[in-house]
Structures are given as structure tokens and as C-alpha cells.
Design a protein that fits this description.
By secondary structure, the chain is mostly beta strands. 5% of the residues lie in helices and 50% in strands. The strands form two sheets. A six-stranded antiparallel beta barrel has the order 1-2-5-4-3-6. A six-stranded mixed sheet has the order 10-9-8-7-12-11. The longest helix has 4 residues.
């Protein structure tokens, strides 16, 4: 299946099949009626979200026809996927994390500064994690610092102290 990981099942919660899930997506994928897939023993189990709510830096999700702890307990530590064709169209200046990872980063003088290793979500927004001279450097993903994002590179405004 072509797709992307959007969450990881951390644990069960209660007796009615609720699962505590760490969200690994920058978009809400766990709304009522959404179709997702649980990766379990090299298989993809198709599931439909029955309900979800925020809970302690994660979310609680209940899947349709799995409203019993005995039916979901085996899925602990499994990843949750979405199919590539189910991804929503983005507005201008919106990006999926997977589109940014691997892109080279250049400064305003067209000097290669590094490559995006990952995108981290923090309360203030998103950070591009890049490795420069063997050390991780963090670049705020804001217009003040990231001047353009293309299919083949990211250009940053490298101000003093940024890297």
C-alpha cells in the first residue's frame, strides 16, 4: 500500500475499545468516518473512525466494530496509515512533512547549508531539523526564515545566529 504513517497506537484506554494514539501527522486524520489502516503483523487492517477526542498530549480513538478492549489490545505499538490517494489537496504554502524531508536547504546567497532530516511540531509552530557540520540545527518554518519552498530545494533567510 502506498501511503503515510499518521499515528502510533500507544495503549488501550477503558473497556470500550478506545485507543490512545500519538498523532504523527500535521493534519487531523482521526475525524469521524475517516478510513485508516492499522499495520499489524505485515498486514494492513482497514478501520473507520467512530469517535475521537484529545487526551493528555495524544488522542483517544474508537474504531467502528472494534468497541471492546479485547478486540483492540493486540494493536498496541502498531502504526496507523493513510493511503496516498486519500490525502487532501493542500492550499498554497501548505506542505506535507514527507514533501519537505530530504530537500536541500540553501541560504539567500545560494550556498548549500544542509538537508531537512525531519519536521518537528512544537507549540509555536514547526521546525525544520537539518544537520550542519555533524550537528542538528533547527530552523523555524516561518516566512521570516523560510523564503521559498520548491520541489527541489528550500531557501532560507540566514540571519546571524540562526545556524
Amino acid at each position: 500500500m502506498e501511503g503515510f504513517v499518521v499515528g502510533k497506537i500507544l495503549n488501550t484506554h477503558g473497556l470500550k475499545g478506545d485507543l490512545k494514539i500519538k498523532v504523527l501527522s500535521d493534519f487531523d486524520r482521526f475525524y469521524k468516518g475517516s478510513i485508516l489502516y492499522i499495520e499489524f503483523k505485515k498486514e494492513m487492517i482497514k478501520v473507520e473512525v467512530l469517535s475521537s477526542k484529545d487526551y493528555d498530549n495524544s488522542i483517544l480513538v474508537r474504531f467502528k466494530n472494534m468497541e471492546d478492549i479485547n478486540l483492540v489490545e493486540k494493536y498496541k505499538n502498531s502504526f496507523i496509515w493513510i493511503r496516498e490517494e486519500d490525502l487532501t489537496e493542500l492550499e498554497e504554502d501548505e506542505f506535507y512533512f514527507h514533501e519537505l524531508v530530504g530537500l536541500p536547504i540553501y541560504n539567500q546567497e545560494n550556498q548549500l547549508r544542509g538537508t531537512v532530516k525531519e519536521v518537528r511540531e512544537i507549540p509555536q509552530g514547526h521546525m525544520l531539523v537539518t544537520e550542519i557540520n555533524g550537528k542538528n540545527k533547527f530552523i523555524p518554518f516561518r516566512k521570516e526564515f523560510v523564503t521559498s519552498v520548491g520541489e527541489d530545494k528550500i531557501v532560507i533567510n540566514e540571519i546571524e545566529g540562526l545556524l
